[in-house]
Amino acid sequence: MLFAWLLLPSFLRADEFSKTFHYSARMFSFGTLTVQARTGNIQVESWDEPRLEVDAEKVVEAKDGKHAEPLYERVQVVLSGQDKQVLLRTLYPARRLWRPFRDESKLSVNFHIHMPFDANLVLKCVDGDVRISGLTGRLEVNVNYGDVEINVPSLYRLRSLDARSILGYVQSDLHGENSAGWGRKITFWNSSGEQDIKVRVRMGGVYVYSSL
Q1: Does residue 119 surpass a pLDDT of 70?
Q2: What is the pLDDT at residue 95?
């Protein structure tokens, strides 16, 4: 495979280059962060601070660093709002009818997010893995292609869990679930709890586990 790659003309060869950008906003407890992402992995961690901090790593494919620079501008990261409502999204170049997905595979954004532990999260991602840990607020996660891993900080505070994968696997230590195939799901109900978690994955896996 390496020999075949070396035989490619130089203009067909591509390496990965990355650059990280930082964003922040004031965010209160019980506020809601909405994430709209297309391609890239997302890691969300909690902390006891009244603000949102985001590291966005843009990853591009180019033949060298010089050609990578203009590609970073082709995908934009937009953070808007503060306090109770914050929106984080990626904006890609407009698609052309005759080549709608041209160059999209060469542009991705990986997010590393810190947010208040008791805030809410609504997340949509087309293609990428999602890891969430330490949040006690409402979680609503939708992923088309990728795996979702959620750390539940307290089973006593968890009221409901409804996690489903159309094609993939589900694993959890809540009831010992571990299965793969079509139409897999994990459900949990505790009438005395407060936190609600909903996960939908089209193709990929769901792993839910508790810290306690």
Answers
A1: yes
A2: 57
HEC sequence for 78-147: EEEEEEEEEEEEEECCCCECCECCCCHHHEEEEEEEEEECCCEEEEEEEECCEEEECCCCCEEEEEEECC
Q: Which residues pair with 152 in a beta bridge?
A: 210
Instruction: Report pLDDT digits (tens) over 31-54.
Output: 999 999 999 999 999 999 999 999
Predicted pLDDT at 175: 78
What is the per-residue pLDDT for 30? Answer: 95
Rounded Cα–Cα distance for residues 15 and 8 (Å): 13
DSSP-derived secondary structure letter, 12: G
Residue with tokens 């009818």: 97
Helices (H) and strands (E) in the chain, counts: 2, 12
